[in-house]
Amino acid sequence: MNAKKPPTPTPETCARTILEMSGAAFEPEIAVGLWSKILDHKWLLSEKVGRDMGLRTACIDFLENMEQAPDEYRTYKRKDVLKEMGAQSVSRETWDTIADSQPPKRLVQRRIILPLTETNLAQKHGVVSPKAILFFGPPGTGKTHFAKAIAGVLAWWFIEIEPSMLMAEGVEKVGANLRGIMRQARNLNDAVLFIDEFEEIAGSRDKADRIDKSITNEFLKQIPLLKSQENNLLLVCATNYIRQLDTAMLRPGRFDCIIPVGGLDTKGRTTILKYYLSKLNTGQIDLARLIEMTSGFTPADIQYFIDQVAHFAFEQELKEKEDYLVTTDTFIQMREKVNPSLGNDEIEAFEKDCDNYSRV
Ligand SMILES: Nc1ncnc2c1ncn2[C@@H]1O[C@H](COP(=O)(O)OP(=O)(O)OP(=O)(O)O)[C@@H](O)[C@H]1O
Ligand SMILES: [Mg+2]
């Protein structure tokens, strides 16, 4: 239902109309404040019954329930915003698929999760809860997965702000849309807001054209607004190209932490392999061999490798009409289909970025 409000009438008109509708007399300055609340209440009633409720009914009902009506409106509106923004709930399992040794899990636990869950202790020691963090690292290393996992472990909503939401009305409107979305988001509670490919909206202003510049500027205004909020909101941005970001974005005071997400060590690969192996129809598997053959693999590479094996097994069984068990040999056979994403050049470039940009 359209919740757009018409312009507020003058204070005198508000007072007169409320008096006519309900018989209750208010000073014009008070009546004008009540006016928008009555319109909110009209929206809420209409949503509940599924048809447009008259202003008179809404006005009378609001004045009778003045104590609880605004709260009820806020709760209802929040649900509406969650739906509109495509909020997802994420299971805790996502966090458990990340090995403790996989960087940056421990760091995220220490700097993000604990201050948000141990709030009294954090307050006692003057630890400020994080409001905005940035992940950077090569493609497929698990940046999005980390953002989801944080939402899962906190039991908060996960809301991805897609570039298409910002671009919906053309490039010229991106700044205004960003402002609108962030305004809506600030009404939420217990939510992780995620923006992927952050360089697209916050690229360097030196190289950007007029429109890009205005988006970066808008974003720079939004971060302090978000930080001034009391409610549980965490903005997580991710980029593969941290060097392309506007330097103003990276200054202290904007993001609370700038966290690198890099390649996997042996334990990291083990946890991910075990997780995906549990979904296959397996026979004898030499895990140590799989770990060795996936050296240099990102989580995305491992997932792709497993997909290849799964499809192969499926097709084999279709063809042979007998139970096909995936074994170490199946992996050896399929290994050549996957090239590890992280070669020496990528690792070297990432290490340089870690030195230059990490702030944890
Ligand atoms: N610890 C993990 N356990 C299981 N799967 C994982 C893990 N980390 C990442 N993945 C999977 O690997 C794939 C790549 O991860 P993700 O999309 O998070 O990477 P990314 O760094 O965001 O990549 P991009 O830079 O392309 O956006 C995803 O399908 C994700 O579900
Ligand atoms: Mg991603």
Automatic annotation (TrEMBL):
SMART domains: AAA (SM00382). SUPFAM superfamilies: P-loop containing nucleoside triphosphate hydrolases (SSF52540). Residues 129-265 form the AAA+ ATPase domain. One of its GO terms (molecular function) is ATP hydrolysis activity. It comes from the Bacteria. It holds the Pfam family AAA. This is AAA+ ATPase domain-containing protein.
